[in-house]
Write a structure and sequence with these properties.
With about 375 residues, the chain is of the alpha/beta class. The protein is built from 19 helices and nine strands. Bound molecules: tryptophanyl-5'AMP (TYM).
Length: about 375
C-alpha cells in the first residue's frame, strides 16, 4: 500500500479515513456551501454569529435557505440530531451537539435526538445489542450535561421506542429501492438484511413531529458531513409522504490525535473520551501528531506548521474562543517562539478543566435523564 492509498479519503456514515477534502465533499455529495449571505441571514436571528459558523466548522448545507424563508414567514422548524452509541462519547461528538444547543437556544426550537443502538448492533459483528442499548442511556448523560432542557429535548432510544417509529419507517422503506440504497451506502451481497433496512429508521425523526403534534414543519439537522448519505435518500421520498424535505447543516470532523480521518472510538489512544481521567488526557495529548520539527533546534530555527497540527485544530474547534489568541498562537508556532510541548501542555489543561466540569454535570444528569425520554 502506498502513502497515497493510505491517505485516500473515505467518508461514509460508518467510516472516515484519510485527509478529508471538504470542497470535494460539497461537490461529490451535491451539498451547498454556507455562503457569506446565508451566514448574515443566520446572524440576524442569532444575535451575531456563533463561533462554529464564524470559523466555518459548519461549512455546508441543504435547504437551510428554505428553512429560513419559512421561519421568516412564521413557520417554525424542529432540530434533529443523534448518536450511534457504540461506546463512550468523545470530543468529536460534542462538536455538533454544542452547536445544536446554541441553535436551540437562539431559535427556541424542539430537538429530537435519536440513540441508534439498533444501528450499532447491525453494522458490527462484534457489537452486542444489550451493550449498545446500555451505552445509549450512558451517552444521554453527555448530551444533558451540555445544558439541554427536558421541556424541549426529546430523546428517542430506538429499540425501546420502536413502536413509535415503526409505521413511519415502513412508509419510508417502501419508497426506497434496493438499487438506490446500494448506490448511496455501498451495500454488498454480504451486507446483512437488518443493515439494509436500517437507514429507514434514521429517517423517521425527520418526520416524527407531525405524528406527535399534528404540526407539519421542516426538520433541520446539524451533524458532521459523514451522516449526509442518510439525508439524500430521506430527502428523495419526504414530499411523497407529505412532509418537508429535511434540511441539513454540515460540520467538519474533528480529527483524531493521530492526525487524519476523524476522532473515532475505534482508535482509543487518539480519541479523548468525556470519561477519560486527567492522566489519560495528558498522555494522549502528549503523543499527538503536531506540525513540529524533528528536533527542538530545528523548530526554533524554522518554526512549526499549525495547518497540519492536531493540537491547533482542537483549539480551533473547541478550546480557544478568542480569534486574536488563535492568530497569535499560529504566529508564535510559525516563528519558532513556542514549541509543541507548550501547546500540548496548554491544551491538556484546557481539556481537563472542561472535562472536570462536564463530568460533574454528567453525574448530575442521572437525576433527570428520564425526563428527556420522548413523550407520546
Ligand atoms: P455517531 O455516533 O457516529 O456520531 C454522533 C454525531 O457526531 C458526529 N461526529 C463527529 N463530529 C465531529 N468530529 C468527529 N470526529 C465526529 N465523529 C462523529 C456525527 O456526524 C454525528 O452528528 N447514525 C448516527 C446516529 C444518528 C444521527 C442522527 C446523527 C441518528 N440520527 C441524526 C446525526 C443526525 C451515528 O452513528 O452518529
Amino acid at each position: 500500500m502506498t502513502d497515497e492509498d493510505r491517505n485516500e479519503m473515505v467518508v461514509t456514515p460508518w467510516e472516515v479515513k484519510g485527509k478529508v477534502d471538504y470542497d470535494r465533499l460539497i461537490r461529490e455529495f451535491g451539498t451547498q456551501p454556507l455562503t457569506e449571505e446565508l451566514l448574515k441571514r443566520i446572524a440576524k436571528h442569532t444575535d451575531g454569529l456563533q463561533l462554529q459558523l464564524a470559523r466555518q466548522v459548519f461549512f455546508s448545507h441543504r435547504d437551510l435557505d428554505t428553512v429560513l424563508d419559512l421561519y421568516e414567514k412564521g413557520t417554525r422548524f424542529v432540530l434533529y440530531t443523534g448518536r450511534g452509541p457504540s461506546g463512550p462519547v468523545h470530543l468529536g461528538h460534542l462538536v455538533p451537539w454544542i452547536f445544536t444547543r446554541q441553535l436551540q437556544d437562539k431559535f427556541k426550537t424542539r430537538l429530537y435526538f435519536q440513540m441508534t443502538d439498533d444501528e450499532k448492533f447491525l453494522v458490527d459483528d462484534e457489537n452486542q445489542l444489550a451493550d449498545m442499548t446500555r451505552f445509549g442511556y450512558d451517552n444521554a448523560l453527555d448530551l444533558i450535561a451540555l445544558g439541554f432542557k427536558p421541556e424541549d429535548t426529546f430523546i428517542i432510544y430506538d429499540t425501546k421506542d420502536i413502536d413509535l417509529l415503526y409505521d413511519i419507517a415502513l412508509e419510508v422503506a417502501k419508497r426506497i429501492t434496493y438499487s438506490t440504497a446500494r448506490a448511496t451506502f455501498g451495500f454488498q451481497d454480504s451486507t446483512n438484511l437488518g443493515w439494509i433496512f436500517w437507514p429507514a429508521v434514521q429517517a423517521v425523526p425527520c418526520f416524527i413531529h407531525k405524528k406527535l403534534t399534528g404540526e407539519n414543519v421542516p426538520a433541520l439537522i446539524p451533524a458532521a458531513i459523514d451522516q449526509d448519505p442518510y439525508w439524500r435518500v430521506t430527502r428523495d421520498i419526504a414530499q411523497k409522504l407529505g412532509y418537508y424535505k429535511p434540511a441539513q447543516i454540515h460540520g467538519r470532523l474533528l480529527p483524531g490525535l493521530g492526525g487524519s480521518g476523524k476522532m473515532s472510538a475505534s482508535e482509543p489512544e487518539t480519541s479523548i473520551f468525556t470519561t477519560d481521567t486527567p492522566e489519560a488526557v495528558k498522555r494522549k495529548i502528549w503523543n499527538a501528531f503536531t506540525g513540529g520539527k524533528p528536533t527542538l533546534a530545528e523548530q526554533k530555527k524554522s518554526g512549526g506548521d499549525p495547518d497540519v497540527c492536531t493540537i491547533f485544530q482542537y483549539f480551533f474547534y473547541l478550546f480557544e474562543e478568542d480569534d486574536k489568541k488563535m492568530t497569535e498562537r499560529a504566529r508564535q508556532c510559525k516563528s519558532g517562539e513556542v514549541m509543541c510541548g507548550d501547546c500540548k501542555k496548554d491544551l491538556a489543561e484546557r481539556v481537563n478543566r472542561f472535562l472536570a466540569d462536564h463530568q460533574k454535570k454528567r453525574e448530575k444528569a442521572r437525576d433527570t435523564v428520564e425526563k428527556f425520554h420522548i413523550k407520546r
